[in-house]
Amino acid sequence: MSKDKSLPYLLPELCGLAAAAELLGDQWILLVLREAFYGVTRFETIRAHTKITKQTLANRLKKMTELGLLSKIPYQEEGERERYEYILTAKSRSLAPILFSMMEWGHENILHDSPHIALTDKESGEVLHSAFVTADGKIVEPKNVQITTLI
Fold it and tell me: GO molecular function terms here (predicted)?
């Protein structure tokens, strides 16, 4: 009898995709992350850009802060009460390739148009694209990518 090598993919606790989908499957979390990547850090501006209700936004910001996706930094404008900015962390910045890949895919496959923003190389100004890259820097075509069990 042969060992089924697909078994680890059936166990939810071993599936990083399931864990990420549980969090990133929340449209409000994705929209808050989008705003944070655009440099929007304040509650009312995030709310205005996303049309999220105050309670929903407060709940998502609390969850994202607890998970380490955002840092909550106090600020106070003259004559106003203390408020908070929500700043990207290293953990949330590591989502950039995923989020921008999703954006690129959405433009190409759902909206069927060109993106209105792009990631570019600071030095050359060239537009960057998502890719599968080996440890030594070789770009691998998606058709040549395979999933391999490591456990």
Answer: DNA binding
Within a domain: 85? yes
Is 121 within the bounds of a domain? Answer: yes
Average pLDDT over residues 19-35: 93
Q: What HEC string does 51-103 produce?
A: CCCHHHHHHHHHHHHHCCCEEEEEECCCCCCCEEEEEECHHHHCCHHHHHHHH
Question: What domain count does the chain have?
Answer: 1
Strands 83-88 and 70-75: antiparallel
> Cα separation of 93 and 45, whole Å?
20
Q: Which amino acid is at 128?
A: L
Total Cβ atoms within 10 A of residue 23: 14
- 10 Å CB burial of residue 77 (0-12, 13-18, 19+) is exposed
